[in-house]
Specification:
heterodimer, A: 271 residues, mainly alpha, B: 282 residues, alpha/beta, D-Maltodextrin-Binding Protein, domain 2, 5-stranded mixed beta sheet, 10 helices, elongated
Amino acid sequence: MPRLFPRRRTHTFPGWVFILPSLVLVALIGLPLVALVWRSIDRDFFTYSLSAAALNALKLSLLTSIISVGLALLTGTPLAYLLAHWKFPGKSLVELLVDLPVVLPPSVAGIALLMAFGRMGIFGPWLNALGITIPFTTAAVILAQTFVAAPFLVRSARIGFAAIEPQQQEAARIEGASEWQVFRHIMFPLAGQAILTGGILAWTRALGEFGATLLFAGNLEGKTQTMPLAIYIGFEQNTHIALVLSVVLLAVSLALLALLRKFEAQNQPGA
Amino acid sequence: MKRFALVILIIVALLAACGPAATPTVAPTSLPPTETAVPPTATPAPRTLTVFAAASLTGAFQEIGKDFEAANPGVTVALNFAGSQALRTQIEQGAAVDVFASADHKNMDTLVSENLVPSGYQDFATNLLVVILPPGNPANLQALRDLAKPGLKLVLADASVPAGNYSRQILDNMSKDPAFGADFGKKVLANVVSNETDVKSVVSKVDLGEADAGIVYVTDASAAPDLKTIPIPANFNVIAKYPLAALVKAPNADLAAAFVAYVLSPDGQAVLKKWGFSPAGQ
């Protein structure tokens, strides 16, 4: 590990050239969060955090984000496997498409979802014929979350699958293993770390989803009003409710990040 | 050495960027490029007047803003439209605003009690509410009583939004009429599929055909002519009173006063009338 001022007597950069900008960024990220906690913790903290609206929002957020991550795992893991180990026409296009929600503003995702799966969307008439209406339902919340969160899982899992030495699959195939057996017994366990990391990242992203949900699913307590929506609405009624809900969400996000760190540390004991 | 200078430059830029106090949600001012020499003319220095206005005022205030700019060379009117409750919150959090136009008295009174707006503000317009239906009327709504039809997808503004508050008052008024029944309001509210954060979002959801009906201002309905409407009779309807005021800490107090006067002047009132608003009376 380098020391704080590694070569201070030579004519290179003094340490503060690195320290000063770093401090600016750390302060920019840290100060608002400290202020948030500072301002929210007082006599009314539990009154608000345990209010029916807050608990409904928390319950809905946890339920929908867990289902969204489940969907992402079920569909994203096979896709990541295909992208890492198969060659097929249009592969780079699929890669680009799956990465797109990471950079796309969520409001764009919300409008796009409405245009596709809304009642008047392109697939609306078919869904209507089956008696399915998606907007303004909890299903819409899950679709919006999966749309924005699954790419994080695919990215991470793809890197995990790609990092596996090809010899290991070759050896298994020579032994007569089928593609499914190779995946199930070799690839999945070896990439498990990356899949898990991606899953947790996707989970945090799903928990934080706001823009696409508001546009595609609307805002109704107990049905589509997740934590971020409750915070937004709460901010305009009573800043204190919004503050307290924000701290609750901050705590949940921190717990997930800590979990992520723990899994990462397990694989790299030296780090 | 050159690299060192660059690093310093970046740090200075960073520090400069976080130096001045944050001014949230104020539209960027368009300053003339500093490289070109500005010829000495009679045009006054460019100034920006920041106006926060209720979402329902979007069309009318955009036009009034342009007229005000034309009448005051060098002045840019930066408009921020949202639910009045959202704007009130932003003002409370220290947004540098010159003029606030609210869709109700409640949010304005809150600011008065916080000494952010002087007492004795004036109403400049009134509005009424109406039921809107998407083109094609998919749920086949024929009359107000159909709002209680089970399974209808109704979108309202959130109760914290003035329009949402008025909508609920109207439902209360209707519930008092035996023709609708005491549980009418309850049945209608059970059909609500979303509480939107401003009235324009209600219009969008209905206009897209995702909702079967919504309750908005008559001015919103006339701004979206492909929507069908069901009028709400005067005995149930609520008259939404729109007040406006220059803020106590308005950065451009003189311009703020001039803008308020302009909105109240015959020219400003004519624009509001054109967009469907009624005069405030006294």
